[in-house]
Amino acid sequence: MKIGILALQGAFEEHAKVLDKLGVSSIQIRNLDDYQQHQSDLVGLILPGGESTTMGKLLRDQNMLLPIREAILSGLPVFGTCAGLILLAKEIASQEESHLGIMDIVVERNAYGRQLGSFYTEAECKGVGKIPMTFIRGPIISSVGEGVEILATVDEQIVAAQEQNMLVTSFHPELTDDARLHQYFINMCKEKS
Ligand code: GLN
């Protein structure tokens, strides 16, 4: 069982370490060749935090946007954290273009503002329990479509959600010692494969 981690930019190494700790192999996907070579082995894909505009541009420049989009639409489980969440959103507030544009959510980038952009808290996450949450200039999900389940909120803002094979958080679970959310994702991958 192998999970791909998009490794164009951002916090991909940290996700690899968590998967390793949980005994799951990962493949870092840096370009279209990497993706095509491992595509048939992958049971899931992680889109890490970082800078969504840069990642979106690199995905387009390397002709990876459409193949990844199609794989997710065909059911490949995907876990988007922070910028990865923004990549998946159908709509990005005050931006004309989305990136993968497949999850039925509207997101606001840098929504916690400059002062409160980075902070730590703990909150209940449905199906997982009370977990630590590290926010780094994270987005908030300002609205969700009918098929989207809200998994966690902080200060009444949605910070984790799931729509079928797509799991997203506006915080960074890979930056804490708590691996339960990754385990939750691994379980989604096992169910699908
Ligand atoms: N602010 C970043 C963006 O808009 C996301 C921050 C993160 O991934 N930690 O892409």
UniProtKB/TrEMBL annotation:
It catalyses: L-glutamine + H2O = L-glutamate + NH4(+); aldehydo-D-ribose 5-phosphate + D-glyceraldehyde 3-phosphate + L-glutamine = pyridoxal 5'-phosphate + L-glutamate + phosphate + 3 H2O + H(+). GO terms for biological process: L-glutamine catabolic process; pyridoxal phosphate biosynthetic process; pyridoxine metabolic process. The keyword S-adenosyl-L-methionine does not apply. GO terms for cellular component: cytosol; glutaminase complex. L-glutamine binds at residues 50-52, 109, 136-137. Its EC number is 4.3.3.6, 3.5.1.2. The keyword Cell inner membrane does not apply. PROSITE patterns: GATASE_COBBQ, GATASE_TYPE_1, PDXT_SNO_1, PDXT_SNO_2. The active site is at residues 82, 172, 174. In the presence of PdxS, forms a dodecamer of heterodimers. Only shows activity in the heterodimer. Catalyzes the hydrolysis of glutamine to glutamate and ammonia as part of the biosynthesis of pyridoxal 5'-phosphate. The resulting ammonia molecule is channeled to the active site of PdxS. Belongs to the glutaminase PdxT/SNO family. This is Pyridoxal 5'-phosphate synthase subunit PdxT.
